[in-house]
Amino acid sequence: MTPPDAPDPVSAPNPDRAHARSTRAPVYRLEYAPAPESTAVVSLRDSYGLFIGGRFVEPRNGRSFVTINPATEAPLAQIALAEQVDVDQAVRAARRAFTRWSALAGKERAKYLYRIGRVLQERAREFAVLESMNGGKPIKESRDVDVPLAAAHFFHYAGWADKLEYAFAGRTPRPIGVAGQIIPWNFPLLMAAWKLAPALACGNTVVLKPAETTPLTALLLAEVLQEIGLPPGVVNIVTGAGPTGAALVAHRGVDKIAFTGSTAVGKQIQQSIAGTAKRLTLELGGKAANIIFEDAAIDQAVEGIVNGIYFNQGHVCCAGSRLLVQESVAEHVVSRLLARIETLRVGDPLDKNTDVGAINSRTQLDKIHGLVQAGVDEGATLHQSSCALPDRGYFFAPTVFTDVAQSHRIAREEIFGPVLSVLTFRTPDEAVQKANNTPYGLSAGIWSEKSSRVLWMAEKLRAGVVWANTFNRFDPASPFGGYKESGFGREGGRHGLAAYCQFAEDAAS
Amino acid sequence: MTALVAHGDSLQWVRAFAAGTLRIPPVDAVGLEARATALTGRSIKKASKLVALRLAIQCIDLTTLEGIDTPGKVRALCTKAMHPDPLDASIPSVAAVCVYPELVAVAKHSLGASAVKVASVAGSFPAGLGPLPTRLDEIRRAVDSGADEIDIVLNRSAFLAGDLARAFDDIAASKQACGAAHLKVILETGELGTYDNVRRASMLAMAAGTDFIKTSTGKITTNATPPIALCMSEAIRDHFEQTGVRVGLKLAGGIRTAKQSWQYLVIINETLGGEWRSPDMFRLGASSLLNDVLMQLRMQATGRYQRPDDFTVD
Side by side, which strands form the sheet with A74-80? Predict the structure, then answer.
């Protein structure tokens, strides 16, 4: 911070200044002092056990792993490592709980869900700070998006719990049984809410496996479940990495698998349950097209591009990672975008003014570096924000690639980081063709002031979510899910109930 | 977006606009408001708050525009403008006082050799629908009385009737009438109905040669808002990119709290950048704002809020 009259290299007086009258040329500087959210609201334990049968228990073999803060690389806590035997315990607890939970009247199950949502709201700051500490996302996002949306999902599905018979015309929904749910590290609490709320509303019990790098908010949620008196075993949480998830997927006592994560793992899961009666929903990767027409509201479209790819450091399966911009405005849009990324504030996730936080893990950072290098090697033009990155922790500067061709790896592979690939098109047909020319199909964005074109495009895009003149907007009432290698099944809204119900009529036939 | 139009030529500007060679991008209201909300959510603390508050004072056009304004009232206002806090000489003076033309001479005399400018509304303020020669004459008289800056209103009647050339020519003629004085054009955004109109009117006024565009007269219920400030800032940035000319922004009406002042500073800071963070390019038209800023500054210095009566009311 400098006083207003100190020299400012960034905004040195410009001799061309057309209307400057003042003979002196004072420079008025305005920087933002650090505004970190306090971590005092979070009380971390040294170690966390597994949440099985309503209690925290030690894993049978006593193994554990460390979870860290990716912004500082400092360890936060020891986390129990669940192995086959522990997963078995958890599934058994869920099976035991299923009989009574599934027989409970819908309005009674709803009461529990409402309570969870309310406690999430009451303890919102604690959840938000912990989410940012463990995952690296900016506090303004965990505070304004993750936690409120998580609570909203519990409220939404609480509302459905006693109205299930109205959700499916002419069919009688029944719970499936024990659901094994495996969630990713990009929205740890929110994904837990997306998975738990509909499963519980429909009368299923759950074994949830949070991601290896971000287990803490799920474990805090387990404390909330104890606090609100959820019957033991209705939700069990097992922590660990791939092998823990594989044990859960393979367990014979699990009736349904719900997985959100990478396409590669999704394929493995689908192969491993082939020949069993297990039901499966997958929400996998994406390489979404964000399509800008020349008649778009350009300034708002640029904000939409920024939100589409830099929200949550680009760790978003539906991120708008492929910008398709009409060639007539491409130069203008790119110059606006490059100017805009200079104003993104990259750094401490807990600072309330941070726009882009830490990359979730060293592994992910290495993957981003690798794909960006591939983009450079293949001949795309690299542009990066000149922002300074913190010395410690995992950070990556907001990045834009221009001169990208459809055949480049950076146009096809999911980078899952703050890296945007810019491609151009000439006509609406070409935009549709390029947008759909991907193995994925999770989301898409259309920016145009011409609503007839927006509707025409939305019909033709093979993507589960199509946003018009906005991006990365989520609502519990809106179904979310993919086409092609982005997975199958829908989460959210009335559609999200179907994944957690079976139907009496189907069994009879 | 290429649109190089000679300053002050309405025919050329309107033709370019009609032909689409002058492209004024549409504004998406939802996106604009979301971005404005995000910017006003910036957390301005400690040292940056002090800098913002001092800058806010330096950008204030301390205003009185009442039918009951008297020489005594204006003299008191001028004293306050030069020395906002009699107990703290380190507090800078405001940018200007803003009065009706009849009181310009009083203000000029009161301010003497100080750096505080005299701004005057003119041109049949606030409706702006007097005969053009009368409006121009009022401007000239205000300048002759010593006004450094003239605030006129956009001819909304012509603008909303689609007579862009007339709205343009009124401004160009007013600019000429100003001579060396600076011209601010009030768009009265609360009457324009859409952000698209605000952006279009901003571009029109800038092409016609104004030095500042300004939101509001303060005489209607809808005044400056964060989305309006953002919308006009984006137009100013476009105009600068297209012509190389920097036009200033004045926000007026309903700005009463210190917090609002730094929220607006953040909007221009992140949309227009360093060149606009100065009284030469940014103004806040207000009356009660000054005391709230002083109260916040005293709070930052002492850690305690003072009574409202500890600050002078002029």
Answer: A47-48, A74-80, A64-69
